[in-house]
Structure formats: structure tokens, C-alpha cells
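Hey, quick one: can you model this chain's 3D structure?
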Amino acid sequence: MLTMTNTPNHTGVKISGDYFDLDELNQAIYHVIGDENKYYDYAGSRMRILGISYEIRHAAQGDRNVESVFNGLHDHTKKQHSFIAPDKNIYFSTEVLWPEILYAAIALKDFVRLHREEAKFPDWNSHLHVIGRFQSLVLDCLHGQVPEEEYQAILKAFQQAAPVEEYAIQYIDFLNLKFIGMPKKQREKSLAAVALKIAMQDNDYLAFRSQVLEAANPNKVPIHEIRLQAEYPDEIEW
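Sure thing. Here's the predicted structure for all 238 residues.
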């Protein structure tokens, strides 16, 4: 079963599951976001989501974290059915920064909407249900980290979030790096505010986007191709 938990230092979330859980999520992501030429105005958002997908795929291959998890098989069950079997399953996991996963949950709303507009019977599309559960897990994990009043405001903001068409995805890098640089206590206190900033596309975001557009316009470069002049640390204290 796919699970999502807050990391010890409140830097991000840990996505865990067995190989089939992670592979199912990856297949659903690929299915919903389409190929690179399908939704051009969402190219930047597609890149961000594929970045998470990359980590999930490598986790499923055993390239990230590997752990054993109790599978519910008790000794009396083994005796009752006269067989020998392990009582633990192998789970794989990877970490994703909080601003990154929050943005993905919102951006996937747009991809799901676009996909539903094209699908003949979207209510019966299993990939859409997998994506919906993934988004719910993000918010459920967030629920455990913020006060109830703030969480209800976040839910409302996520429900009413503006489309991420031609979103300045560099802003997510900015938030990621800022979040990494905070002390643990500050990350705890700032998480709700970060979630709201991403959902509401506030004045800070709009000012940031204007700067990105200024950099893109002289050479008519697509907004998502402008690079933020900052580097991520080699090691992150999750």
C-alpha cells in the first residue's frame, strides 16, 4: 500500500510502497500528463512532476531507501495453514521536498482536468483514481503537520487553486531552497504558509513571475526554460 509520511526534520515527505505500488503510481503519472508535446503551456509543470516520477522510479528499482515492513502474517496463521513464510515485505521509498510535492498535487489537478475532457469514460479510468489517491495522501500527510484551522484554509485554497498554465516553475526551486535553509522549527511553523503561497499564487509569486518573464522576453525563450541561478545542496537533512 502506498504511504506518505513527514520526514524527521520536516523537510519533505517520504513516499513508500512495494514495487507494484510505486510502479502503479508512475504509470498513472505518465498516462495523465501525456507526452511532452501534448500540453505545451504546461511543459514546466510536466517537468516538475516528472522529477518526482524519476525519484519514484528509482526507488522502485531499489536505488533509494529499502526497508522491511510487517505484512500482517502472524505465527498462528502460518500454523493454521501449515506453511512457512516471512512476516515482512520489502518496501521502497524516496523523499521529496515539501514545496515540490505540494506543487505537484496542485498541478496534477490541471492534468486530470485536461485528461477528463478528452476521455470518453473518465470515471472508470483507473489511472485517474491512482492520481486522486496520491493527491489525497499529500494533503493527509500535511494535515498531521499543521493546525486544524490552517489546514481547512489550505483545503479551500487547494480546491480553488488557479490553473498552473505557464507557471513560473522556478518559484518552486526558490521555495525549495528557502525551505531547506530553514531550521527545523521554522520549517514546522512555515509549512502552512508555504502551502497557501503555492495554492494562491500570491503577490510574491506574481512579482517573481514578472522577473522571470523579463528574463525570457528578450530572446523569446519559453518561461519554463529560464534557469534559476542557484544550486541545491549535495546532501539534504531529511
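One thing worth noting: The chain has one domain: 3-225.
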